[in-house]
Amino acid sequence: MIVNNAGGRFFLLCCVLLSWLQVSAIHPGTIDSLVREQMKDGNIPGLTLVVIQDGRESIYTFGYTDVRTKEKVVPATLFELASCSKAFTALGILRLSKAGKINLQDPVSVYLPWLKFSYKGKPAVVTVAQLLHHTSGIPWYTISSIPPGNERDALEKTVRQLNNMSLQAIPGESFHYATVNYDILGLIIATVSGLSYETYVTDSVLSPLGMHHTFVGRDRVPGGYVMAQGHKISFFKARAYEPPLFKGNNPAGYIITDGPDMAQWLKVQMGLVHTELDSEIAASHLRDESVPPGSNLSYAQGWLVSLRGDGVIYHDGLNPDFTSYAGFITRKRTGVVILANSNSTYTRTLGNQLLSLMDKGVVPKDIYPESDNDRSFATIAIALFFYLFITLLFTGYIIVGIIRKRRKYRGWHKKESISMLLLFAAVLPCLVGIYLIPQAYMHFSWQAIRVWGPDSLQVMMTLLLLCIGLSCGNAVVSLLFPDPHKYLRVIPQTLIVSILSGIANMVLILLISSAAGNRDNLPFILFYFGLSVMIYLIGRSYIQRTLIGFTRKLVHEIRIDMVGKILSSSYEKFEKIENGRVLATINGDIYVIGNIAYMAISLATSIITVIGAFLYLSAIAFWATMVTAILVCVISTIYYFFSKSTRPLFEEARDAGNVLMDFMTDLINGYKEISLNRRKKLEFREDISDCSEGLRAKIMKAETNFIYAFLVGELLLILLLGTSAFGLPLLFPAIKFPVIMSFIMILLYLIGPINGILRSIPEIMQFKIAWDRIEVFLGELPSDLSIDEPMPLTVAGMPDSFQADGIRFLYDTGSAQPFGVGPVSFELNKGEILFITGGNGSGKSTLAKMLTGLYKPSAGVIRINNQVIPALELGEYFSVVFSPVHLFKKLYSVTIDGKEEEIFRYLEELDLSHKVSIRNMTFDTLELSNGQLKRLALLQCYLEDKPIYLFDEWAADQDPEYRKFFYRTLLPKMKMQNKIVIAITHDDHYFDVADKILKLNVGKMESLLVKGLSGTLTAVK
Question: What CATH topology corresponds to 28-360?
Fold first, then answer.
């Protein structure tokens, strides 16, 4: 038995030694590195650390009392205890209770008869004990109603703010932390004791505890003591801050103390030092068992009691410029106190980590600091600053435009009044929403926000109001002084509305996610929900209408520009462009341009949503967000370069589309020829099928590559989610699990917008291809003349003569001996008729094109009245009927007003009056035979009434009777009207009608016959 007892004692001794070795193994360097790391991350300029380990006291100091003076923190440096002050107020109440002056179960009205509460409109009774345990039902945000001031009655003024307050819960049923609970207790102490709260706590609590360097309220700190300068974190760093004095909140947050006194305080709490308040100290550690605990914690009286079985009792404090932490484990005689001169949330985290380190020898991985929101507000403020800068530049642009008279005042009309009312109606709810943000977000006033919130929040709100005001100002000035450039009128407003719409979309997601279980703020949530929906829907509607109008107008202008370019180019140049390419460009490429509006709407919304989401993520974990953003950029870059490889395939597909359009043109123009033979149809269909198959294969290959690229993007997004779930905890061990879940949820939500951005890349690429094709097409059509400017004619009135002097034209075939026509020389006087004859391929049509200015002669000149006429001007003297003939349904460049009888006479003469009529400058039908179309074209020549007529094989499609009528009646009539007539013909038995006959053979002028006085045609050398 003795042996067994000895063995047991030896075993216990070993356990004690091992336990002591485990605790004593914590080197001061470990504490030092941990504290400095958290001070750096948490923007804490200076702190005092009190450590009691197994009853042994150590006091460490770090950093500066003031970032400006760099004065070192020493153990005697005073700090505000913030909410750790509540334990002293609780001791005061417990001491009065022990003395029989206060009954903890009494209603508050016993001591403060004028203080009334209600719950849902009915009177509610709050007891002293409920104030001690924060179960009174008073909401936490009542801290914002504490009035600043240092008057003697400041405490009573604070409590009177609560009179007739509506509670958020039935008293005694649930825990709701509220600072003002302890301000009420402070006023009860003053009322019952007959002393000021400060005097009673100093004399009856601090003095018995031996805390002689601890003071109640900053105004009671005597001279000679060094008080740390408080700091507030703003724009990513701690900055010196001097908040107003809140004497009315002394019982809850303004005990001033130093390191040695807090070491004494810890010892008293753990029973290492005994005082006359031992029983009250013990009572203050008893948790409230009348309400359910929350988060494994239960509130005692000025202390939080852990329910994890570790025996931890602690409290932390947060003031506008100071933070604190006090925690201990009585059975292990271990405790930690931190006094910090910054409003950093890292103080509580550091306290919990150090206490766990003292207790278990390890720093826990599941204790994280809360976000201080400064990073988020500062990031948004910086973004707003850049927006404001750009807006100011735009303001300058507007002012310069007005000064230089580029922008002109257009007056105030009904339209401007309506626009102003709409602008006011849109901005007013937004301003109301901004004003209500503190009340909606935290039930704070703006005055309280200025004290408790970071300066970055105030700067952000100021910049936001400036941005709204300046944007509205620009909108009003632009309304009255519009930009002459029509696109610049809408682009700035569209960008602003796009940003607002994207932000509203992001806010909707956040509101929906925050609405669950949040009934206190439900009216505000509904207000902001409605406001966000309104902004989003109105914004999307405006953007869609504007962008659709913008792109359709752009398409219209590009199309008209292309048509204008074509009409301003010479026929000679335009003839070289394939028909299929013209149609593909005007129809296909412009169609792609027109669809950009829908893609732009989706892309803009997706980008803004992604940016908003990442701003939100940066507020909860900045560096993790940066890593995630870099990964998203890498994904987008990989996807872009993967997609870029498909551009050549789309280019090839576009070329194949040109060929297919050529086939379609052949099908339409040559349908009668191809309809004659079944085999011809089959072979033509086979060629179209081969071309279409090639187009299909190229497009399919390009789009398949895009699918592969998209799948790569999908895979990378999945890997991104995996990185968030598995990689972030490894890269950032201190990151909270809820933060990781937030990342995953937000990234899951962002898959849609990110995929939308990725999907827009092929559309952007096709847009770029179409735009480049249009630019190349327009570049190949240099304007030879401006159709918008009048062309002065070299010869006015009826020409007396028309002369071709050695004109020739060479085709650019690339061969050494290109085919050409000419030289050709002849002269015609008014009232003369020239017939041009020759076999097929002799150059008759080419000569006609030179004579009319469609082809510019390679050599020689054309004169009218002995004056050289440029090729571009020649057409102004001609009315022409080409072969094959083409008639526009509308009559251009003619006037028919007052010519109705003349037109009817011409139609009768041309035997067309029963076939066609002219209404509103338009032929009512063109469903005529080729011969009838040529007769109708002749009518158009009559109406144009130009001095020179040219007819290309006009009589070839006429019946013999009407052919005779043309040669024997119509041409002589033209001759009598002093017209110069040039006719390409093979009708040799009508050659006697001509005054001159020019014969071509293989492009050469073979002969020129001239009618003499006797009427005989004689060759001229």
Answer: Beta-lactamase (3.40.710)
